[in-house]
Amino acid sequence: METNPPTPDCECPDAPPQLGVGLTGNVHNKVSVLLIDDDEDDYFLTSELIADIHGERFTLDWASTYEAGVAAICGHTHDLYLLDYRLGAKTGIDLLREVHEHGCSGPVILLTGQGQGRTDLEALNAGADDYLEKAGLTSAMLERAMRYALVQHRAATELERKVNARTEELARVNEALRDASRRKDEFLSTLGHELRNPLAPILNGLEIMRLAADNPAIIARQRDRLERQVNQLTRLVEDLLDVSRITTGKLRLNHEPITLSEVIETAIEISRPNIEKANVELEVTLPPESVHLSADRVRLTQVFSNLLNNAAKYTESGGRITLLGYVESGHVTVRVRDTGVGIPPELIPQIFELFTQVNQTLNRSQGGLGVGLALVRRLVELHKGTVSARSEGPGTGAEFTVVLPISEVADPH
Question: Is the residue at 165 inside a domain?
């Protein structure tokens, strides 16, 4: 057992002599104890009690003032603190409360004389781990109390860590739920907007056809207009059905042997009206050899038409879309790159989530429910592939990369 020489003016946070270890983790594997007491005789008595403890080495330091005690506990200078009840004009209870107000803690045992009334309850309520009366105190009693205080504090610290971790986790979950609710509200608002858009022209067209029943030219124009609006409503309903299939896990594939080129050609054919309407250039480069896939022809075509339509939607007139495909390590990679508005970096992790839209105002002006990329990700995953997005930020364009496994199935033709 080692004790340090009495240092009644010790400012423990600065440099207490030869601190021990325990919770603070010093290399000597000792438990460092600090006595906070304004009476030097008590220091020597405590030293003698600790000297008689066998089996584990303790080091004892001494802080003789209230202020030094507060600084030591808040500075975590020792593994355990023995705190006297009487500290000049103040008490150990005052010190515990002040330490608590500073957000500090440590294993503390309050020492007091006899006849202190309800001091034991006050001490425990103020944050002490144990309470001992000096009269009749033995080394065995002190050792037992110190070991209990250390174990108790470790357990309380671990519990606090777990509670804080759980609280942070719940806060993240709550934030995610609030974000999902917000995005769902935005989706429903967009849905209402999109459903109203074709309904007004349909009603107007029907009224015009009623009034011009004897004018074939007007009837023909209005019929074409109604057909376009009904087709738009049909696409909206299909989007809603796809959302339902995604959220309920009922999206299913019909696999068959196909080639990459025929899927891309069909996707381009579907997307060409939107590409031409946006007045953007499309450049396509595919492997010269046939790339065979086992896939759902309709759904895989939907993947690439969605990516092309998305690129056309967010690329200004005169811009460019490039589609590049190549084979590597048993997989085919298809990159769809545009020179459009780009994606803010903070939205990249969310871009494939349902109800997430890069630009709410632009989406409303361009039309659509903003579920296309969520559908792309789910369809690619069902094909045992991956899809990712990359953008340097607003105004730099975006690139979507789809990687799919190549099939060994022979050419279907």
Answer: no
pTM (2 decimals)?
0.53
pLDDT, position 118: 75
What are 347's two structure tokens?
């939205």
> Is the pLDDT score of 25 beyond 50?
no
What letter represents residue 294's amino acid?
S
By the 10 Å C-beta count (0-12 exposed, 13-18 middle, 19+ buried), 161 is classed as exposed
Asked if 111 and 183 sit in the same domain, the reply is: no
pLDDT score for 184: 77
Domain count, the chain: 3
Query: Nearest to residue 31, comparing CAs of 125, 106, 120, 118?
Result: 106
Which CATH number covers residue 215?
1.10.287
Rg, the chain, Cα only:
37
- Residues ≥6 apart with Cβ < 8 Å to 338: 280, 311, 312, 314, 315, 319, 320, 321, 322, 397, 398, 399
CA-to-CA dists, residue 172 to 4, 185, 277, angstroms: 49, 20, 42
- Contacts of residue 53, Cβ cutoff 8 Å, sequence gap at least 6: 1, 139, 142, 143
d(CA 330, CA 301): 21
pLDDT at 8: 41
Clarify whether residues 196 and 312 are in a common domain.
Answer: no
Nearest to 406 by CA among 328, 331, 334, 333: 331
Containing domain of residue 185, as a range?
A: 177-248
Q: Do the domain assignments include residue 27?
A: yes
Residue with tokens 């008689």: 52
Within 114-202, strands assigned E span: 130-133
**What are the tens digits of pLDDT across the range 344-360?**
988 888 888 876 655 54
**Does 90 lie in the same domain as 110?**
yes
